[in-house]
Each structure stands twice: as C-alpha cells, then as structure tokens.
Amino acid sequence: MKKVLIVEDQVDVLKLLEMVLRAEDRTFFLTESGEEALEIAREVIPDVILLDIMLPGGMNGYEVARTLKNDPATANCSIIVMTARVQEQDKAEAFDAGADDFIGKPYNLEDLRNMVARFLA
Fold first, then answer.
1. Cα–Cα distance between 31 and 11 in angstroms, integer?
2. Class for domain 2-120, per CATH?
3. By the 8 A CB rule, do 85 and 53 touch?
4. For the chain, how big is the Rg over CA atoms in Å?
5. What CA–CA distance (Å, rounded) separates 98 from 114?
6. Confidence (pTM)
C-alpha cells in the first residue's frame, strides 16, 4: 500500500483531496496541523506528503518540510507543497525548504492527481 499524508487546515478541502486521490493501492493519513504532520510522518513514513503552507498553530508548511527533509527517517518522503501563495519567491521558498513539487491554489484536480501518481509510481 502506498501511504499518502495530507496536511491541510481546511477540513472540507482535506476530505475532498482524500476523495479525489483515493485508489485501491493507497492509504491516507489526514491532519490539520504541522506538529501532528511531523508525528504521523515519523510513524508511518509516507510515500508522498501533500503539504499546505499556511497552517494553524506554531508551525507553517515550510518549517514542516525543512524538518522532514532534515530527518534521516523522513528525508526521502516526497513533498508536494499546496498553497495560495504563488509568487516566484513563494515557489523558491518551498523548494528551498525541501519541496519536491509545488501546486498553486486553486488547483486543477486532474493536475494534482497526475502529480501524486508520478511520485507514487
């Protein structure tokens, strides 16, 4: 089973993403917080992480990505950053933090589905 971690603070978007990306060979882990994302990632070692940047609490998506990429246990997890912040500097910051890919909101669900499939292949 491929493991997908979705980190998104809007519950309706979280559930929509799980529904759109669902496949027989995938299991999903969902969270609304950066801190919990780190805990889950270290426990299950997901194949791909869909990571929102603007999260509630003390840790944003950039910090989550940096932490995961600096931890040998999770360094190989693929991270797709999802954000409404789509300026070039936002993209650069995402890649500097360790993102493997980037998709702006509102995103085309087919593009996102293809992106996830590419990382799970």
1. 9
2. alpha beta
3. yes
4. 13
5. 20
6. 0.95
Report the residue count for the chain: 121
Residue 91, C-beta contacts closer than 8 angstroms, at least 6 positions apart: 102
* Per-position pLDDT tens, the chain of length 121: 999 999 999 999 999 999 999 999 999 999 999 999 999 999 999 999 999 999 988 899 999 999 999 999 999 999 999 988 778 888 999 999 999 999 988 888 999 999 999 999 9
Tokens of 40: 């889950």
Domain ranges of the chain: 2-120
Query: In the chain, what are the helix, strand and coil shares in percent, each to the nearest 5?
Result: 45, 20, 35
Could you count the other beta carbons within 10 Å of the beta carbon of residue 25? 7
Total Cβ atoms within 10 A of residue 53: 25
**Residue that is written with structure tokens 């087919």 in the block:** 110
Q: Residue 74 and residue 83: Cα distance in Å, rounded?
A: 22
